[in-house]
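To close the chapter, one final illustration. This time we ask the reader to focus less on the individual chains and more on the assembly as a whole: which components sit near each other, and how the overall shape emerges from the parts.
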Amino acid sequence: MSDDILFDLKGVSKKFVKGKDTITVFDGLDMSIARGDFLAIMGPSGSGKTTLLNMLGGVDQPTGGEIWFDGSRIDSLSENQLAAWRANNIGFIFQFYNLMPMLNAERNVELPLLLTKLSRSQRKKNIAAALELVSLSDRARHMPAEMSGGQQQRVAIARALVSDPKLMLCDEPTGDLDRETADEILSMLQLLNREYDKTIVMVTHDPEAAKYAKRTLHLDKGVFVEKDLAA
Amino acid sequence: MAGFFSQIWTVIVMNILSLPRRAWMSLAAVFAVAVVVAVLLAFLAMAKGFEKTLAGTGSDKVAIVTRVGSQSELNSVLGRDTVNNLTTAPGIAPDADGNPIYSSELFVIVDGIKRNSQTQANIPMRGIFLEGFDLRENLTIVEGRAFESGRNEIVVGKGVQQQFEGFDVGAEIRFGKTAWQVVGVFSTGGSAFESELWADAPTVQSQFQRGSSFQTVRLLLANADDVTPIKEFIDNDPTLNLDVQTEADYFASQGEALNGIAIFGWAISIVMGLGALAGALNTMYTSVAARAQETATLRAIGFSNTSAFAGTLAESMVLSIVGGIVGAFAAWLFFDGFSASTLGATFTQVVFSFELTPELFANGIQLALAIGFIGGFFPAWRSARVPVVTAFQGVE
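The assembled structure is written out below.
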């Protein structure tokens, strides 16, 4: 595997059993994601894009094939091993932000750092840097309910990047935002990709959002159709 | 390892902080546990108070002699000859003139009207000589005076006066065809004697057609807790069919018959506890469902299953501890020192006070913790085992 390849999926299959029926989402899917890529995955509902994202994030397991990440096979790891792997390598951004409503912004951002051995003072520095990057330093003590959708998503981005993961996985990150705010968020992701060399995989329905990515894969019934939309 | 504990602590704190979002359901769980603990503590306080009253009644310096086979003072009979013979036994403390110190007593049952329920209940009436007063520890006449020999006068125990109507000093009260004058109130420091009426022994024998018989003899022991010489004396005289034991032993054995109060209290509390447990399980399953997305998000970030488990269990335990404390406080507020009476072994009313000790509080909190642990364990297990993807989909 090339050093430039961060993710490598080999013959991945994913099947669900529902009653007497077996639903096949993927059957022998091959895919590679290079370091520093910003990949948008589009497709109609039921095409398997969220399932793919979940498998890339180690929260769902394939029923066949292999998934390699940075030279290590992850599809055979136990649940606890996968949790530790996610803590070290993955930053998640969700459509509905998934902030903890009882914690303020900086405490939300701190969550991934609690899984590290960083000291309290070092954690504080990292939190401040992450919040500054998303231009929310002045909202550090605000609760999620006191912030707009765009601000909450920026907190979620700060949370995803605060532990400096190799990969950021975004599930419809602008699906709950207006156009203007969505563009702000997407610009921020683009900045993280270009300036901070973050590898980003984003699932979206929105063609405008996909334009911010370096490339877009169209998924239909578990099969990719690649179109290069990068400017 | 530091990360392991900090993530568990974080999840516990988050779960506790999120309780206000499930305020009513959480309050219902707290209330259920509080009721169970309050009921348990009420029963245990009752048993404790009863036990303490009986334990405080007997002295190890006094021997009590009853007829063989009689289980209590009530069904014992001793003739005057027997009493006279018995008082020649060795091991009895003498007075200044060298005469044995003893008290022959009889025991009849009269009726009284309870203040709180207005129902009739039995009250023990003891025929006693004034010398018998010296064989009771902590005896004081707190109001009025002692009865006079040969007169229809009674002194009433403090407990009787509190629980029954018509026993104020100066009042006249009728038992059957005889009228008695209440001339005083006595206290024995909360012991069971306070549940009795005392009157002159020959007068009671006369008014209740008891001839010259008594029911018990109390003997002041030459050596505390040593009834052996008296027992040997009785064993060596075939005309004396008597049992002898210290007064302390006598009342302790009377109290054992009522240990059932505590057992009944535990039994009813466990049955109620099962109801509270069902409530706790329901609350915690609801809580787990309400926090499914938060739990899934944390696990996606990299938090362990253990932290999800610990957080749910801690939430359940906190609710139960709060319920336990509320229940214990309510029990203390309503029952500690609460005066009540119940049937003693002689089918008469024994007046006693509920007593909540630190040990009983600990029992209540332990029960609450048990409910919290069991009520939280299974929902916590579910919280930890539901796949992240399933939790995100909100499908159980």
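Strands of chain A lie at 5-18, 21-34, 38-42, 64-69, 72-73, 90-93, 167-171, 199-203, 215-220, 223-227. Chain A touches chain B at residues 54, 57, 59-60, 79-80, 83-88, 90, 92, 94, 98, 100-103, 111-112, 114-117, 159 (CB under 8 Å). With these observations in hand, you are ready for the problems at the end of the chapter.
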